[in-house]
């Protein structure tokens, strides 16, 4: 029986694990119940477990029976999104305003299924480190684990990450050489002016006007400052100001994010956002304070490890169903920080989103249970291949 066939015989059980995670979503760095469940499952299979790595992270360690060798890491994220769930599944979120809208419930389940299998089939040389990371959705979970000594406490030679992806056909896999996902910053622009009665705008220094001009101007940065063949995005996603119909407020705040595929482009976006905000503020007689919060670096996949990851995927799903993606993804992942410290590779596993959702981060999204065994089998295969005696 192949690894995939063996794991598929348990797929109904894995789906139950996944549904339980889905019912109890927790936000980044708050995954107390989630990490507890992960830790208990790992312990029940005799796996060495360290909890509270980076606050709520969990690390499991499996030593092969064939002696010392290299150490590879397999990583899953654990956190949910701050959004209400609108789908109709029986395992719908029981935590109001929170949901697994990105498939991290499936990611945990796939790595747990692989962990159980590997704990029972230790015919490899070296060590497997299982990283269950908190706070991927902008909470800085990867950096928290690294600050807590992740790779000093658990030295690794290479690391692998996987994400479900609705743009890839069900059960198929895509890898990349080099840039795989974009770097990302959050930005906030705080505008302060002078309030007045709406009937006397000449007595104000209007931050609402400044905010309106600024939103339009920010859209020109990518089109006029970044080379057309260098992908970059600036998205304004929130504006907060005012509380009354007839009052010009004193303050306004704009927030959003950037995406980029090189450190140089990321730095240029920061420079131009700051310059544009400050000069528009001056033209409107208000002040501007600009703040940036780095969320993810550019995720770079090591070519040699990507080749190994693709080869492992092809063993599981067949040559026709695993290939290199032509383009990187504009989405971001803080796995990028882990793979800056340890050579790494990342892949996308295709799945559909039932209940009306067409993509991730959708209030109707739900993970495709049909690929749970596939993902677990890929984890098992890359681990055993890289640690073959």
UniProtKB/TrEMBL annotation:
Coiled-coil region: none
Cofactor note (record): The Mn(2+) ion enhances activity.
InterPro entries reported in the protein's UniProt record: Amidohydrolase, Bact_exopeptidase_dim_dom, Peptidase_M20, Peptidase_M20_dimer
GO BP term, pick one: diaminopimelate biosynthetic process
Domain (Peptidase M20 dimerisation) ranges: 187-280
Superkingdom in the source lineage: Bacteria
Pfam families, per the entry: M20_dimer, Peptidase_M20
Gene Ontology terms, MF aspect: metal ion binding; N-acetyldiaminopimelate deacetylase activity
Requisite cofactors: Mn(2+)
Amino-acid positions noted as binding Mn(2+) in the UniProt annotation, renumbered to this chain: 102, 104, 137, 163, 361
Designated name of the protein: Amidohydrolase
Organism listed in the record: Sutterella seckii
């Amino acid at each position: 029986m192949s690894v995939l066939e063996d794991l598929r015989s348990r797929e109904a059980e894995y789906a139950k694990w996944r549904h339980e995670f889905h019912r109890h979503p927790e936000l980044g760095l708050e995954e107390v119940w989630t990490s507890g469940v992960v830790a208990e499952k790992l312990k029940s299979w005799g796996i060495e477990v360290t909890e509270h790595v980076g606050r709520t992270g969990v690390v499991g360690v499996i030593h092969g029976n064939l002696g010392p060798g290299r150490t590879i890491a397999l990583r899953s994220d654990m956190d949910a999104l701050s959004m209400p769930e609108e789908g109709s599944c029986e395992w719908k979120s029981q935590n109001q305003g929170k949901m697994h809208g990105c498939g991290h419930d499936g990611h945990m389940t796939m790595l747990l299924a692989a962990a159980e299998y590997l704990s029972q089939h230790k015919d490899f040389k070296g060590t497997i480190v299982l990283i269950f990371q908190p706070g991927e959705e902008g909470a800085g979970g990867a950096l928290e684990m690294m600050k807590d000594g992740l790779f000093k406490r658990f030295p690794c030679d290479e690391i692998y990450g996987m994400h479900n992806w609705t743009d890839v056909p069900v059960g198929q896999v895509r890898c990349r050489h080099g840039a795989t996902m974009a770097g990302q910053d959050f930005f906030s622009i705080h505008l302060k002016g002078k309030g007045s009665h709406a009937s006397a705008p000449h007595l104000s220094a209007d931050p609402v006007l400044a905010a309106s001009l600024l939103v339009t101007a920010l859209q020109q940065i990518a089109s006029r400052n970044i080379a057309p063949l260098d992908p970059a995005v600036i998205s304004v996603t929130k504006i907060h100001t005012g509380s009354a119909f007839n009052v010009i407020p004193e303050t306004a705040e704009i927030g959003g994010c950037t995406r980029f595929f090189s450190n140089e482009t990321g730095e240029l976006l920061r420079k131009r956002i700051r310059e544009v905000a400050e000069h528009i503020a001056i033209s409107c007689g208000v002040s501007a304070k600009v703040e940036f919060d780095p969320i993810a670096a550019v995720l770079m996949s090591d070519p040699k490890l990507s080749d190994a990851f693709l080869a492992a995927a092809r063993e599981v799903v067949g040559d026709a169903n695993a290939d290199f993606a032509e383009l990187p993804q504009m989405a971001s992942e803080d796995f990028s920080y882990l793979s800056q410290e340890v050579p790494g590779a990342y892949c996308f596993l295709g799945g559909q989103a039932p209940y009306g959702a067409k993509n991730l981060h959708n209030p109707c999204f739900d993970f495709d249970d049909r690929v749970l065994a596939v993902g677990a089998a890929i984890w098992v295969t890359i681990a055993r291949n890289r640690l073959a005696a």
